[in-house]
Amino acid sequence: MPGGNFWYNKLMLKIITVPAAILHKKSTPIKKIDQEITTLAKKMIDVIRHGSEDQRIGVGLSAVQVGHPLRLLVVYDPEPQTNLILVNPKITWRSAKMTQGLDHRNFPYEGCLSVPQIFGLVKRHQAIKAHWQDLAGKIHAEKFSGFVATVIQHEEDHLNGILFTQRVLEQQGQLYRLEPTNNQDVLIPIKL
């Protein structure tokens, strides 16, 4: 049975889904990292690690996706199983090399808790350098590559009011709907 905070957090944070207008607005910088911001970040980690109200689990989440248009995002890095909390993140460098889809994964398609059951391949920079503050206000700068770089780019897009579906369409890619067919989930191309 999950810890007490999990059930409290699950009830407190609701994932905002399309077509909510807030998802298309640019988030504002956090001026002061206080207990409210710290609590929000920890609740967001609970959502990506343990599931949202409808049991969906993610690998990243931006504050705007839970109704707080603030420049805050969280990422779960499965290797080495750590949580990253980025306050006021800014990508300051992007590699020339691009990737399409989530590398080294059995399921390379991007999805989003705010766009349920929709997936697509997105071209993103293979490596990035990001600057951000942690919950203590300390400034960090770090280079990320592969999976974590992709997730940070996806979440930073949220902070700028951009959904992954927009990226797929800009890149003239294909969107898919995940549908149960014959007792298994299948990606069905969406006709636009």
UniProtKB/TrEMBL annotation:
- Which EC class, in a word? hydrolase
In Swiss-Prot or TrEMBL terms, this protein is called Peptide deformylase
| InterPro entries associated with the record | Peptide_deformylase, Peptide_deformylase_sf
Q: Does the keyword S-adenosyl-L-methionine apply?
A: no
Tell me which family the UniProt entry assigns to this protein: Belongs to the polypeptide deformylase family.
- So where does Fe cation get bound? 112, 154, 158
Q: Which PANTHER family match?
A: PEPTIDE DEFORMYLASE
Q: Which GO terms describe its molecular function?
A: metal ion binding; peptide deformylase activity
Q: Which CDD domains match?
A: Pep_deformylase (cd00487)
Q: Where is the signal peptide?
A: none
Q: What is its EC number?
A: 3.5.1.88
Active site annotation, chain numbering: 155
**Cofactors (names):** Fe(2+)
